[in-house]
Structure formats: structure tokens, C-alpha cells
Write a structure and sequence with these properties.
- Helices cover 82% and strands 0% of the residues.
- The radius of gyration is 17 Å and the shape is globular.
- It has helices at 3-28, 33-57, 63-78, 85-103, 108-112, 116-136, 140-162, 164-169.
Length: 172
């Protein structure tokens, strides 16, 4: 495996691992806000590094090439050649980046107390994208890790929703 491929693969793996760590901390240890913010921010930065590496080493900085690659990969998996998933990745970049810059770094108290109308759609979209990247489109150890992370986060979310303080914190 060449250096560019290693960099591309491991930056996204590390980014998604930090994504899981940050969400797990938020769900299971809400007092660890600073650590969750650091993991969330580092994960976002590593994801940006992954995108840059992918565009540099695989797509020659060409959106058209990335679109065709995404369409081919989607077609091989589901039988429909559609590159629109690339635009979902662009939205993912903007969503995660805006969440880091606008919400987390303005103060963790505001982040944790924000409206469910912001929080739920954002995290549902990000979880959908992470699940697709690690379970649907991946294989081998990456898929196994994606399944394990999904089960872990789903369990933590269910536990958090059952707690008496969850209703008070998320009633906005």
C-alpha cells in the first residue's frame, strides 16, 4: 500500500474513531466536555486531512474524477451509478466544520444546551454518513469496527434517553 493510500485511509479511520470517542463522552460522561470538544475538533481536522489526501492522491484535485469514482463505487454496491454521495460528503464537511467552529468553540455550555431542532438532524445525518462509510461501503476490520461503534453509540444513546436528566436537558 503506497504512502498516499495509507495517509488517506488512516486519517479517515482516526477521524471516525475520534467522532465515536467524542459522541461516547457526550452521551456517557457529559462532565468531560473539554475532552469531548478536543476529540470532536481533532476528528474534524483529521477528516479534512482525509479529504485533502483523497483529492490529492486519488482524484488529482478533480471534482469530476471524484464524482465518477463515487458513482462507480455506488454502482458496484447498489447497482445504480450515482455520484451524488460526493455532495453528501461535502455537506458532511461543512456540517462537522460548522459544528466545531460555531457551536463547540463558542462555548461548550451553549453546545450542550442547544435546541434538539439543531442537534438531532445534525447528528442523525452525521451518523448516517459514518454508518455508510464504515458499514455499508467498507469491508473487513473497518466494517467490524463500524458495527461495534454503531452498537456502542446506540446503547449509550438509549441509556441517555432513559435517564431522568435527559428529558430536562433536551426539552428545548
Amino acid at each position: 500500500m503506497a504512502g498516499g493510500e495509507l495517509l488517506t485511509r488512516w486519517t479517515v479511520r482516526a477521524a471516525l474513531a475520534l467522532y465515536v470517542v467524542a459522541l461516547a463522552l457526550r452521551l456517557a460522561a457529559p462532565r468531560r466536555r473539554q475532552l469531548a470538544r478536543a476529540a470532536w475538533t481533532a476528528g474534524c481536522l483529521l477528516f479534512l486531512a482525509h479529504v485533502a489526501a483523497a483529492f490529492h492522491y486519488f482524484h488529482g484535485w478533480s471534482h469530476d474524477h471524484a464524482y465518477r469514482y463515487t458513482a462507480r463505487q455506488t454502482g458496484e454496491l447498489v447497482g445504480r451509478y450515482w455520484g451524488g454521495g460526493l455532495f453528501l460528503n461535502y455537506i458532511f464537511i461543512v456540517a462537522w466544520g460548522a459544528d466545531v467552529v460555531y457551536w463547540w468553540w463558542r462555548g461548550t455550555g451553549g453546545y450542550l444546551a442547544r435546541s434538539r431542532r439543531v442537534d438531532v438532524p445534525l447528528h442523525a445525518f452525521m451518523a448516517f454518513m459514518a454508518f455508510n462509510a464504515t458499514v455499508v461501503f467498507a469491508s473487513g476490520p473497518t466494517r467490524a469496527a463500524g458495527i461495534a461503534a454503531s452498537i456502542l453509540l446506540a446503547g449509550l444513546l438509549l441509556n441517555r434517553l432513559r435517564s431522568p436528566t435527559a428529558a430536562a436537558v433536551h426539552s428545548k
